[in-house]
Fold this sequence. Notes:
Largest sheet: 5 strands, antiparallel
Distance between the termini: 145 Å
Strand order of the largest sheet: 1-2-3-4-5
Radius of gyration: 35 Å
Amino acid sequence: MVPTTPQTPALSGELPTPDAGPGDGIALPVEALVGGGLLVLVLGYTALYARGLAQSGRYAKGFVFDTCPICQRGKPLLEARQERWFGVPHTRWIVRCTECRSVLRETTGQRWRYAVDPLENPFLFERFNGREVDADLLRELARRAPEFAAHRPPRPVTPPTFVDDDDEEK
């Protein structure tokens, strides 16, 4: 018998491709996935750290207004409270008036909760006390502060007198 070799069919230009199964395709090594995940974490941490540093220097040149819009006499006194979350600096600002007892507490970036002194300006107390305001509204309020001066109660000309109860008992 004559040994025969199997004949291969003539190629017509394209080779038949086997069907791709569920395990076929591009496989990334586990090290590449872990390295990529760590890179994303490091870049995210760096971005949060840079943002925290920018927050801590936000009011280095001064606050949104120079004169308290409530009493129109006091100046804003800024107090920074810095906390760290996993080493990332996070600054919360508190602004107090040097004359009246009005206080602004930062709730989020550029958003503030106003605590207005009701004795200084009852009109603005009704409209802004406990309300969250943004920096644009604070600028507008400071610009229009002279309009609200008519709503403030008059300041006493003479200070109240102090009566010492200990002198009466003798």
